Amino acid sequence: MGEKAIMNPEAKVTPSGTENGYSKPARQGDKYLSTQLEFLQRLLTQPKAIIGLLIMAVFILMAVFAPVIAPGDPSRFVARPHQPPSGEHWLGTTGQGQDVLKQVVWGSRVSLFIGFTVGFLTTLIGLVVGMTSGYKPGAIDGVLNMFTNVFLLIPGLPLLITLASFLPPGTVTVILVLTFTGWAWPARVFRSQVLSLREKDFVSASVVSGESTPYIIFSEILPNMLSLVVSSFFGSTAYAIAADAGLAYLGFEDVNTVSWGTMLFWASNNSALLQEAWWTFVPPGLCIALVSFATTMLIYAMDEVTNPRLRSEKEIISVLKRFHITSKRSTPVVREPVTRSTAP
Asked: Where are the beta strands (DSSP E) in 28-133?
């Protein structure tokens, strides 16, 4: 400490060892981590996020512990066809004498695996294409934007049916087909966000400091798009589960695989609706609807946390309710009293 004072006599040494009373700035990684923890804390206070997470956790646990919840082969014939729910078979039997509860539990494995895998792949491809196209104007942006527009203009359902009919049936084929037809929308959304973020000061500072393009894209811009990336993942997951069920219902998948979509296919094939066997198609349809509802709740909750306008309106409403103030307007307006001046 004495040598430091001799080298710089004007420096003031504080007990913490910093000069002039100023400490070193926090590292960028620590600041980013604290920001994300604050975002996660705000997200977990949202009722919509809690509902979505609980529903999603139930289905994930059901898929993971399927051998414990419903042991045995779900394709095995256990009773007469179209038996209504009973104490022995809680959700009844299918038109082929299979236990519906076992098929719902085991079918969650295939449906959720396809949904999460397609959601991850479409988000990843859309992220790479959209961020590269948005940050690199010129020829690269023109080529990538052209491919994105082509995939957006092609009708999705006919393309899905065409590809699924010519490729060998299987889970891998479904994942590839849904990824091939579903990456364009996330790419367009990410490109629009990057076009806005690349004009910010922190991006300009990184360019001036000589940082490489991949570093700027994935280390400077991507952290500011995390909520959008997660929302896109949940949206793509819901799309994949619904599209997988649609392909299976139309018979373009391996119908011997137990999934929620193949359960709907066999229910339709065995005329369950005409025989009033509602227990064969309501449970898988309800599972698909609940997963889509959970992802929608998570997307809405993240939008309320990250959107400044929605967050400020919610805070204003909570303050008004706390003080028992009612307002017919969406945003309260405070008017100053107008003093009328009398003419001379």
From this structure: none
| Those residues with Cβ within 8 angstroms of residue 154's Cβ, 6 or more apart along the chain or in another chain | 181
Domains in the chain: how many in total? 1
User: What CA–CA distance (Å, rounded) separates 307 from 322?
Assistant: 23
Query: What is the arithmetic mean of pLDDT over 247-251?
Result: 88
- The answer to whether 253 touches 165, Cβ cutoff 8 Å, is no
Q: What is the per-residue DSSP string for 234-247?
A: HHHHHHHHHHHHHH
Residue 86 is assigned to a structural domain of this protein: yes
282: CATH:
1.10.3720.10
Say if residues 148 and 188 touch (Cβ distance below 8 Å).
yes
Beta-bridge partners for 99: 93
pLDDT at 19: 40
Structure tokens at 16: 């913490």
Domain limits for position 186: 55-322
Contact 120, 88 (CB under 8 A): no
Residue holding tokens 């811009």? 221
Cα–Cα distance list, 341 to 334, 335, 337, 338, 344 (Å): 22, 18, 13, 10, 9
pLDDT tens per residue, range 59-70: 999 999 999 999
Q: Considering the domain boundaries, does residue 285 fall inside one?
A: yes
Query: In this structure, what are the phi and psi dihedrals at residue 201, rounded to the nearest 5 degrees?
Result: -65, -35
Contact 144, 128 (CB under 8 A): no
CA separation for the pair 107, 257 (Å, rounded): 8
